[in-house]
Automatic annotation (TrEMBL):
It is an enzyme of class 3 (hydrolase). One of its GO terms (cellular component) is cytosol. It comes from Glaciihabitans tibetensis. InterPro entries: A_deaminase_dom, Ado/ade_deaminase, Metal_Hydrolase. Its EC number is 3.5.4.4. Signal peptide: none annotated. Belongs to the metallo-dependent hydrolases superfamily. Adenosine and AMP deaminases family. This is adenosine deaminase. Residues 21-368 form the Adenosine deaminase domain. Its cofactor is Zn(2+). Keywords: Hydrolase, Metal-binding, Zinc.
Length: 373
C-alpha cells in the first residue's frame, strides 16, 4: 500500500489525473516511506514508534508535520531515517519508492536524499548510494514487469548545517555514471546559506555537475541569491519566496499590474525552474506571509507571470499526498485544467537533470500522454 492509494480526477468528473504522465523533481526518499514498511523495519532493529498500526502511524506523521514550522516538520524525519541505516532498509525503501511513483503515473523521478544521515550502523557513504541504487533498479524492473515504464535518478544532498559539503559533492560526482544525476543541499535553511558550501559548489562547477538548491522556503530572497550566486543553482528547491520580489503596482478592475525585482527577473528570464510543493509549503509556513490556505499560495501569480513552475510533493508521507493529489488540489484552488497540467509537466521535463535528447523524449511522452486524455 502506497502513502496515498487513490485515483484523482479533475473536479467535476474530468480526466483521470493519476493516469496522466508526470514528472517528479522534488521528492525526498526519507519522506516517502510506506507506514507499514516503517513498522516492519523498526521491528527488525528494535526501534520504538509512536504507533504500531499503519493507518495510525500515517496519521501521526501527517499531524506532526502540519505545524507551520520547517524545524518542527523536519523532526518527523528522525523516525524515517532511523529505519534506513542498513543496506536492506535502504534498498527496500528505494524499491517501494519507485513502485509508488509509477502507481501515481510518474514516468521520470529524481529522488533526493542525504547519504550522510544513513551511517549510524556502519555503512560508508558509497555503500549507502549503492544500496539505494540497487533498490531503484529493482523498482524500475518491477514497474517494467507490470507493463509500465519509469526512469529515475538520485539527487545526492548535503546537509547544509554540517561540514561535509565537499565530501558529499565528491560522492555525487563519483557516482555520476551509476545513477546519481545531480546534487542538492537540504536541512535548516535560515542561518545556513549556500555560501557556507561554496567549496562544494566550486567543485561541482569544475566537474560540470548540476545542482538544485533548497532556497526560498524557510528563508527569503538572500537565500535565493546565495543559491544562484554561490550554488550556481539550475533549479530552486521550493523557491516560493521569490514572490517577495514581486511588487503590485496597481489594480484596474479585474487586472493587476506587477513588477519584478532583479532576483525574480533573473529567475524568470533564465527559466530557472521553481520546484514548488504546495501542501508542504502550507505545512512548513513557507507561504505564511500570504495566507494559510492553498488559494493564498503564490503558485498562480508566478505561473501567470511566466515563471517556470513545476508541481512536486516534497514528502509524500508527511503531507499525506501524491503528485496527482497536488495537481487535483491546485485545480480546485485555481481552476486549472489539462492544458495547465501539461505546461507544468513540460516545464519539469525541460528542467530535468538529463541530456537534451532525453529531455526531449520526456516531453514527447508527456505530449502523447496528454493527447490521449
Amino acid at each position: 500500500m502506497s502513502t496515498v492509494d487513490q485515483d484523482y480526477q479533475l473536479p467535476g468528473g474530468g480526466a483521470n489525473i493519476t493516469a496522466l504522465p508526470k514528472i517528479s523533481l522534488h521528492d525526498h526518499l526519507d519522506g516517502g516511506l510506506r507506514p507499514q514498511t516503517i513498522i516492519e523495519l523498526a521491528d527488525d532493529i528494535g526501534f520504538a514508534l509512536p504507533a504500531s498500526e499503519a493507518n495510525a502511524l500515517g496519521t501521526w506523521f501527517a499531524e506532526k508535520s502540519d505545524s507551520g514550522s520547517l524545524v518542527e516538520y523536519l523532526k518527523t524525519f528522525d523516525l524515517t531515517t532511523a529505519v534506513m541505516q542498513t543496506e536492506a532498509g535502504l534498498t527496500r525503501v528505494a524499491r517501494e519508492f519507485v513502485q509508488d511513483l509509477a502507481a501515481d503515473g510518474v514516468i521520470y523521478g529524481e529522488i533526493r536524499w542525504a547519504p550522510e544521515q544513513h551511517l549510524a550502523r556502519g555503512l560508508t557513504l558509497d555503500q549507502t548510494v549503492e544500496a539505494v541504487q540497487a533498490g531503484l533498479d529493482a523498482g524500475v524492473d518491477d514497474v517494467q514487469s507490470a507493463g509500465k515504464t519509469i526512469r529515475v535518478g538520485q539527487l545526492v544532498s548535503a546537509m547544509r548545517h554540517a561540514d561535509r559539503g565537499l565530501e558529499i559533492a565528491e560522492l555525487a560526482v563519483r557516482h555520476r555514471d551509476a545513477g546519481v544525476v545531480g546534487f542538492d543541499i537540504a536541512g535548516a535553511e535560515a542561518g545556513f546559506p549556500a555560501g557556507k558550501l561554496r567549496e562544494a559548489f566550486d567543485y561541482l562547477a569544475k566537474n560540470f555537475f548540476p545542482a538544485t538548491v533548497h532556497a526560498g522556503e524557510a528563508d527569503g530572497l538572500e537565500s535565493i541569491r546565495g543559491a544562484l550566486f554561490d550554488g550556481r543553482a539550475l533549479r530552486l528547491g521550493h523557491g516560493v519566496r521569490i514572490a517577495e520580489d514581486l511588487v503590485l503596482e496597481s489594480e484596474d478592475g479585474d487586472n493587476s499590474y506587477v513588477s519584478l525585482g532583479p532576483v525574480a527577473q533573473w529567475v524568470k528570464d533564465r527559466e530557472i525552474a521553481l520546484e514548488l510543493s504546495p501542501q508542504s509549503n502550507l505545512q512548513t509556513g513557507a507561504i505564511a506571509q500570504w495566507g494559510n490556505d492553498l488559494i493564498d499560495h503564490p503558485f498562480d501569480i508566478l505561473y501567470q507571470l511566466g515563471f517556470t513552475v513545476t508541481v512536486n510533493t516534497d514528502n509524500r508521507l508527511m503531507s499525506n499526498t501524491s503528485l496527482s493529489k497536488e495537481l487535483f488540489l491546485l485545480s480546485e484552488a485555481f481552476g486549472y485544467d489539462l492544458t495547465d497540467f501539461e505546461v507544468f509537466q513540460l516545464n519539469a521535463a525541460s528542467a530535468a537533470f538529463l541530456s537534451l535528447e532525453e529531455r526531449e523524449d520526456l516531453a514527447d511522452q508527456i505530449t502523447e500522454g496528454f493527447g490521449r486524455a
